Amino acid sequence: MDEADPNPFSQVPIEITISVGRARPPVRELLKLQRDAVLALDRRVDDPVDLYVGDRLIGRGELTELEGDQAGQLAVRLTEVANLRGGL
């Protein structure tokens, strides 16, 4: 354990889910989907994305593309961080 950090849980990895939007097609349309079908979402390309840990909203951000050795990889630039005791 790192003696500089007294909290043993600080090094435990967590999974953050990024939500870029939702689609709500009727089941009949969902059953018709095939390869290359386009499913419209309820957000625009420049809208903020939501960051969740489990079902708890922890922040918002904007999608960005990394550069250099990681060029082409998606990332999120945080624009809002939730007060984890009270929300955004």
UniProtKB/TrEMBL annotation:
Record InterPro entries: FliN-like_C (IPR001543), FliN_T3SS_HrcQb (IPR001172), SpoA-like_sf (IPR036429)
UniProt cross-references to Gene3D superfamilies, sorted A to Z: SpoA-like
Record domain Flagellar motor switch protein FliN-like C-terminal: where: 10-82
Keywords tagged on the record: Cell projection, Cilium, Flagellum
Tagged with keyword Ribosomal protein: no
GO molecular function, one term: cytoskeletal motor activity
Kinase keyword on record: no
GO cellular component entries: bacterial-type flagellum basal body
Pfam family, one: FliMN_C
Gene Ontology process terms (BP): bacterial-type flagellum-dependent swarming motility; positive chemotaxis
PANTHER family membership: FLAGELLAR MOTOR SWITCH PROTEIN FLIM, YOP PROTEINS TRANSLOCATION PROTEIN Q
Family: Belongs to the FliN/MopA/SpaO family.
Record's protein name: Flagellar motor switch protein FliN/FliY
Organism of provenance: Cereibacter azotoformans
